[in-house]
């Protein structure tokens, strides 16, 4: 039972008599002769139940009810009214009064009204407790779900990484077997073939290690204003000799007048490097549809603001099932040469910039990867 109760009535006699009855019921009674005094007491005592006369000088009981419900909506207010004020009493129910009692006040009516108020208070407390428990339960289940998803992702990553390492180890075993045969037979062709296999798989180990290190760095993006053309020019200068050594037409197109945007230049450099490296490998592995071996890197303003990067090649293109799996963990189209991390890393970096990456590719018509970055990623 709630200990504190506020009795508001301009008649001192009623406050005294009714106060005794309330005290006998176990309440600590606070009295107020008008609504203004009641509001002052409410600020200090915060009673859960208020009994107030409807007709009082100055602010009447309904106005007090409205003020209490506006400030303390959980407070239960019981109205005291004379027989001639029934319309006002009924009106008070529209403003969320708990009940009303007619004067002279009978002990039975008072007990029933107080019991109803107490039941509402208890029900509200139970509801609040249930809501809090439900929130804690949802929070705990959400935490467990996130943990389960994290463990599943870790398991999937470990499984994919183990498969990749197993393939590399198998390649090294094969290379060493050929080398041993070459040494045993003193066969130069075997030696060259075995060494090529070993060197290729050692390169895969190096690439895998670098990709994993770069992936770990994606949580530490260092954003600053950068000329959007800068990462593209750096990648172009870095990869031009390799492309030209294989007879490819390597083109860089940077729109003039591009404004600096907030980005992590090292991250975007890594994205473009991955895409250009993939394009060169794709062109080397396939016969171009139009007889040309061409890779184009372009930088332009995006329609919605920010910058757009495109890396296009003239390789044989990809079908829909391949495109659907491009950004999955450890999926690669490079066979034994790929790690399946590069495009996953690229997408992660782009998403850290709040950007998007899309691919347009059709068999026989080449591929074009498009990165759109906003001018402010955070």
Automatic annotation (TrEMBL):
It holds the Pfam family Response_reg. Signal peptide: none annotated. Keywords: Coiled coil, Phosphoprotein. PROSITE patterns: HIS_KIN, RESPONSE_REGULATORY. Residues 120-151 form a coiled coil. Residues 160-377 form the Histidine kinase domain. It catalyses: ATP + protein L-histidine = ADP + protein N-phospho-L-histidine. This is histidine kinase.
């Amino acid at each position: 039972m709630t200990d504190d109760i506020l009795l508001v009535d301009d008649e001192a006699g009623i406050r005294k008599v009714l106060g005794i009855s309330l005290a006998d019921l176990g309440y600590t009674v606070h009295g107020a002769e008008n609504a203004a005094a009641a509001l002052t007491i409410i600020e200090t005592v915060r009673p859960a139940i208020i009994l107030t006369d409807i007709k009082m000088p100055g602010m009447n009981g309904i106005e007090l009810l409205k003020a209490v419900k506006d400030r303390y909506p959980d407070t239960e207010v019981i109205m005291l009214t004379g027989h001639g004020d029934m319309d006002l009493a009924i009106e008070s129910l529209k403003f969320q009064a708990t009940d009303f009692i007619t004067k002279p006040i009978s002990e039975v009516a008072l007990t029933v009204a107080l019991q109803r108020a107490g039941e509402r208070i208890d029900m509200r407390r139970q509801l609040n407790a249930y809501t809090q428990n439900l929130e804690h339960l949802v929070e705990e289940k959400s935490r467990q779900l996130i943990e389960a998803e994290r463990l599943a992702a870790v398991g999937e990553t470990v499984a994919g990484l183990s498969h990749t390492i197993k393939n590399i180890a198998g390649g090294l075993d094969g290379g060493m077997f050929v080398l041993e045969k070459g040494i045993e037979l003193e066969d130069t062709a075997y030696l060259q073939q075995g060494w090529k296999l070993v060197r290729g798989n050692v390169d895969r180990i190096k690439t895998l290690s670098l990709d994993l290190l770069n992936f770990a760095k994606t949580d530490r993006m260092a954003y600053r204003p950068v000329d959007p053309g800068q990462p593209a020019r750096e990648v172009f200068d870095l990869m031009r000799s390799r492309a030209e050594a294989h007879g490819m037409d390597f083109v860089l197109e940077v729109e003039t007048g591009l404004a600096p945007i907030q980005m992590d230049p090292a991250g975007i450099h890594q994205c473009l490097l991955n895409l250009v490296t993939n394009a060169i490998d794709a062109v080397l592995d396939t016969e171009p549809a139009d007889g040309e071996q061409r890779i184009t890197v372009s930088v332009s303003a995006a329609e919605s603001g920010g910058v757009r990067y495109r890396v296009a090649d003239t390789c044989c293109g990809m079908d829909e099932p391949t495109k659907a799996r491009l950004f999955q963990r450890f999926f690669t189209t490079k066979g034994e040469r790929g790690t399946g991390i590069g495009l996953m890393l690229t997408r992660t970096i782009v998403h850290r910039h709040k950007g998007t990456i899309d691919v347009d590719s059709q068999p026989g018509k080449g591929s074009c990867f498009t990165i759109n970055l906003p001018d402010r990623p955070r």
